[in-house]
Amino acid sequence: MPPLFFDVALGYTTPEKTRTPIKGLETKGVKVIQEEAVSIDLKNRKVKTTNQSLDYDYLVVSLGTDNGWSAYPVLTRMDITTMTSREPWPLTGP
């Protein structure tokens, strides 16, 4: 489970206070690109997105998460979730 999962679920904190802006990685020399990947050429270390073609040394692909509440029908019926809405939370932007 993610850090502070229970703190948010129990109302001790808010989701906004548990987020770290993904763009903060850029201070560590990481280039953050939030685009749809169209193709990945592993041999030549290239990624084509809907907007550009990129070379890379290291590639991290994040597909998002699914909380899987359907695995807990009792909690779902009681409307107990960690989400404040049924929409996904956006990552904190630039």
Blueprint (SSEs and pairs):
Blueprint lengths: L4 H5 L5 H4 L18 E5 L4 E4 L3 E3 L17 H5 L17
Tally of individual domains: 1
Report the portion of residues in β strands. Answer: 5-15%
What is the SS-derived class?
Answer: alpha+beta
Average pLDDT, rounded to a whole number, is 75
Tally of helical segments: 3
Sheet having the most strands: 3 strands, antiparallel
Summarize the helix and strand pattern as letters.
HHEEEH
Question: Could you tell me the radius of gyration in angstroms?
Answer: 17 Å
What does this structure look like?
This protein is α+β, with helices and mostly antiparallel strands and 94 residues long. The protein has one domain (5-77). It contains 3 helices and 3 strands, in the order ααβββα. The chain has helices at residues 5-9, 15-18, 73-77; strands spanning 37-41, 46-49, 53-55. It has a 3-stranded antiparallel β-sheet, with no helix packed on it. Strand 1 and strand 2 (46-49) form a beta hairpin. It is elongated, with a radius of gyration of 17 Å. The two termini are 26 Å apart. The mean pLDDT is 75.
